[in-house]
């Protein structure tokens, strides 16, 4: 974005032009000349700012879901938030993380490829200590994890994928599956070293321990859904095309739905004592005049007025009026 000049700078510029210290033609020439911008092909920016903002929005939701999940699992104070969203070569990301750390590799079906979740050892061991009943002490012995520790951690991070799926629901329906857990980044080669990846860094605090959880999303894996990460896709409203006959089938189903229709002959109030003493043949006086129309309700809503009668020796009612309230609601 171009620099905005202050009023003083504008006055100084106009003064220099009027006195001849600066030439307006030279300024115009400089403006029209092609400017060369250095581009590093090893650090290609393959994600637009729009897409980076969308990824940041998705993972802010993911961070909130993780905060809720870990708070319930660890039963302690947990705070997770998005610290940064950057795109860089895969090789640079691998060099930036500790030599011994927790690396969870998972496949985000139906996308073709793999994602990586790197958890700082301090955070990982605090989680493990809390799960085993401890106070949440971070003891970094990542180089010699036992089978039990590995199994507990794998199961814990496997369950975080449910939150990952929920965070991505607005863009694509994912069914991620945990593939492997590594501790040495040098043994992990997901994509080529120069492949551009998006790294979402989540600042994580568990109790008194702080650290980072990094998500590595390769461009080659996200490529097929990149159009869905644009603002235009998020803002546009797609009109659903109905299948032929779908409206007719829906209407036929609705027409078969049962409705309770009641004709109210009148109302009366009696005491509980009178109710308990009712016997066969007793008469209850209603507040409805014999010449007044009966009130007909459909599904509990007042719809019609009617008069009582008989049809083929059976009690029946004849609709005489549609109530105004029913006409206004239709």
UniProtKB/TrEMBL annotation:
Membrane topology according to the record: Peripheral membrane protein
Gene3D superfamilies registered for this protein in UniProt: CheC-like, SpoA-like
Alphabetical UniProt keywords: Bacterial flagellum, Cell membrane, Cell projection, Chemotaxis, Cilium, Flagellar rotation, Flagellum, Membrane
* Protein location: Bacterial flagellum basal body; Cell membrane
Would I find Cell membrane among this entry's keywords?
A: yes
Q: Which domain of life is it from?
A: Bacteria
Q: Which InterPro entries match?
A: CheC-like_sf, Flag_FliM, FliN-like_C, SpoA-like_sf
Give the Flagellar motor switch protein FliN-like C-terminal domain ranges: 254-323
Q: Name one Pfam family in it.
A: FliM
Fetch the PANTHER family from UniProt.
FLAGELLAR MOTOR SWITCH PROTEIN FLIM (PTHR30034), YOP PROTEINS TRANSLOCATION PROTEIN Q (PTHR30034:SF6)
Homology family? Belongs to the FliM family.
Q: What is this protein called?
A: Flagellar motor switch protein FliM
The record lists the organism as Alkalihalobacterium chitinilyticum
